Structures are given as structure tokens and as C-alpha cells.
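Following up on my earlier thread - several people asked me to post the actual chain instead of describing it. Fair enough. Here it is, all 480 residues.
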Amino acid sequence: MVRHRKIDGICIAAVVLAAAITVLLMAAAAAGLLKTDKEPEYARRLFDDSYVHTIDIQIDDWERFIKTAGNETYSSCTVLIDGEDFHQVGLRAKGNNSRRLTEEYGLSRYSLKIEFDHFLDGGSYYGLDKLSLDSSFQDNSYMKTYIAYDMMAFMEVPSPLCSYVWVTVNGEGWGLFLAVEEPEEAFARRNFGKDHGILYKPDYHSLNDENADVALQYIDDDPESYPGIFENAKFKISESDEDRLISALKTLSESESLESAVNVDEVLRYFAVQVFVMNWDSYLGHTGHNYFLYEEDGVLSILPWDYNLAFGTYALGMTDPVKDPYILINYPINTPAPGDIMLNRPLYHNLMKHDDYFAQYHENFDWLLSEYFENGRFEAVLRQTERMIAPYVEKDPTAFCSFGDHQAAVDMLEKICILRSESIRGQLEGLIPSTLRSVQEQPDAGVDVSGVDIAVLGDFNDLESAKSQQDAVLEKTASD
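Reply from S.P.:
Thanks for posting it. Predicted structure:
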């Protein structure tokens, strides 16, 4: 064997160089100078959305859990996720109006929260601390939330991961649910790195209150004036955290130097999707909630949450809800809420006062329409998902609707989105009114919505007809 006389030195130098490069890369990654693979293990497992997963909830007294679900107290259980056991897991019902109405209608199919570290310190599912199981309440398509999050992710808005799961209870079929990553510690690490900022889920104590803090209005410099925000922090917060957020709200209220207090690019992309999906159980709606607020280094971002009442199906809490599909599908993108609401939503209103941001908002719509809807991506996602979940919907024992109703809802969701896309394209091109005032001046200028029935997506009548079926499944599950 021929051996170069300097080969040992060359090999040693190569090893030293490789080690040095590795150290430099690690240091750069730690300093945030180099992007690293932030995809956690749980994202590659449960949140692989290319197939339907399985979750079996093993709990001693399921009937009692359902009867007391309205209390929102945690019960201990074991969950098997794709056949793998996780013990001492916290389980409770979730939701506001959906939880209340499920209870009022005497139903048993609640959306659920699964918290891995509630009873067990350090408990997790491959790094995930909490997930939700969305019951598709008032969503016969089973897809409103999934499609809305897919749109948000496409527009590069930090969004919860989600995937479909077949849920069983003590081995008995319970139904098809959508597993959703809860925006807490794991979500923050995945999206913003280990040195992430603070997450909040602003919410009101009573809808009858002013709730100026939930609307992200600047009130004063006293943290106690913002209970809807600071009482709903997802992490432990300090006085400096409070001061930074209040300072950002003050800058937002002044409508100047907004990029020092707002992640403008991300917020404008969020609003493009939010307005497209006609979700008024949200920051732009009557309630002003159902969003997450992220603050880092004094800069605010708004993050998506809760879309089972999107695509024009929200009516709760509104004295005169809009149900006319012509009005909904042609709803103007430049004034996506009445003036009394808009003036009290500074995160939207104060950005739109600036011509550059207003133009960027329109550019985001163009991007969404061109690359998500007009090139066929939306139909592909919708129909591929429909084929994947159809066998599970068909056998879903606690479904809020029949399989035929589900198929009709999927078709209707497709039609609504395509027409909404056409309307917004017309609004961008000046062919269709894009403000509430111009709608009044040109009431017949929108796209034709013949054959559209938004109630097909899910209505209160479905809740009334689902009770007997859910009662029978609950009785069988309890007896087993």
C-alpha cells in the first residue's frame, strides 16, 4: 500500500478544521445568525397531516367526565397516540360558546384539551406540552379550521400545526377530530426559537364590558388596566414584560413609527387571510377576541386561532347577524367591519391609515389569490383532505351531521371560497365595491352567489338532530 509521507498531518488538519467549523456553526445557530431545523419531533409524528392518526382516551368514568365537562376541570387519563402510551395526562373540555351550547343542547361531543404536563411535571408528547381536539362544532365539512390554518401557513403566518385523528374512548369509537397544537411553550419554541418572547391570548370577562385592552387599545400606563391581556399570559411575566407591551400599544395608538411596535409584514398577511375567510368571531368582529398576541423586544404580532365559525357562519352575540350569502361573499376587504368596530381595532385601522401598508395589504391579497386559489392549490388541498377523511366521517358515531350533509358541506365550502376569491379579485381591480359605503352605492355589483347556502356548512338544526345519536354512543361507551 502506497502511503503519502504527509498523510497523517493532512488528516489531523482536516479533523481540526471540521471541528472548528462545527463549533462555529453551533455558535452561529445559538446566536440566531444561522437558521437551524426547528422542526420538533412531535411535528413529524402526530402532526404529519398526510394520514389520519389514532388517539385512544383511557379514563375510568367517561360518563361522569361528559356530565361535568362544562366545569372545565381536568381529569387524569392515559392517552394512546398512534399506539404509544402517555400516562397521567390532563383532559378537559374546551371552548367558549361551543362548549356552552354543547352543554345546553345536551350533547356529548365536546372539543377537548389534552395537557401532558398538567399532572406530571415535565410530561410531554415528544416536546409538545398541550394539544386540542377540535370537534368540528357547527362545521359539517370538518375542514373550516384545517383550511384556514393551511391558508395562514401558506401566507407565512406562524400557525398551529394540525392533523386529523380518529378518537376512541376506552377502545370504543368516539369520532373524527382535528388535533391542533396549542400555542404555548412548544409552539413558541418551534416558531420563534428558544429565546422566544411572550404569548398572550387576550379575552374578555364579559362581552358587555368595554374590553378596550382585548381590542389592543392603549388605555394608560397601568398594567391593571389590561386584565384581558395580562391575566391571559401563557408564560410567567414580569413588570418589564408588561411595560414593553403597554409601550407598544401606546405607539400603535399614535399611528406613527409603527414598525418599532408592530411586526407589520406579518400582521398584514394575517389580516388578508382573516378577511378572506369572513371570520367575525375574531379581532375584527363583534367579540374582538379569538387570537393570540405575541410580543418580543417590544414588537407585537397577531396569530390565528379558532375557525370553526369562519366562512360566514358566525352569528352568536350579534343582534342582527348577516346571513345573506351575497353580502357575506362580497363583503368589502377595505372596511371589513362597521365603523364603530373598525375605529376600536387599532391594529387594523391604524395600519390602514398608511398608504404603503394599505398597498401591501392589497398585495397580500393578490399573492393569496394568485398562488393559493387561482392556480388550483386550494381545490387540491380540499379534495385530497376530503378523500382522506371520508371513511372516518362516514363511520363517525357522534357526528353532528350525516355523511351526505358532510359531502354537501365540502362542496359548499369549495364554492364559497372560489366565489369569495372572485369577489376579492374584482375588488382589487376596482370592479366590485371594496368599502361598506361603496357597497351601498352599488348594491348589485358583486359576484353572483346563486346556489349558495352558507347554513349547509353547519347550523343549529344539526345540533338538535345529533342528540339521540350521541346519547346512544355515550351510553355504550359508559357501559363498556
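The CA atoms of residues 138 and 458 lie 4 Å apart. That should answer part of your original question.
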